[in-house]
Design goal:
Blueprint: E1 2-5, E2 8-10, E3 20-21, H1 28-36, H2 41-47, H3 53-66
């Protein structure tokens, strides 16, 4: 397991290698999807009692850090 950001880990043997929170079986994607659906921190913590408020903040910061990267759109060629 490797920490790639504060509280965010990647383990190839856990959740298909997706970023998770502190090595738990809760992915960053899951938390972000709940936030995107309008859930607030208290609602997410109620559903996932093993999480801490700082975990949710770390997910948002992790996603924001990904947006700092440069992305290139490549054309898709059919052969």
């Amino acid at each position: 397991m490797e920490y790639i950001a504060e509280r965010i880990t990647i383990d190839p043997d856990l959740c298909n290698g997706k970023p998770t929170i502190r090595g738990k079986r809760i992915t960053v994607q899951t938390v972000l999807e709940f936030l995107g659906a309008g859930e607030n921190t208290d609602e997410i913590l109620h559903q996932y009692p093993s999480l801490e408020p700082e975990d949710i903040t770390a997910c948002v910061r992790f996603a924001a850090d990904l947006m700092k990267r440069h992305y290139t759109i490549r054309p898709h060629f059919n052969h």
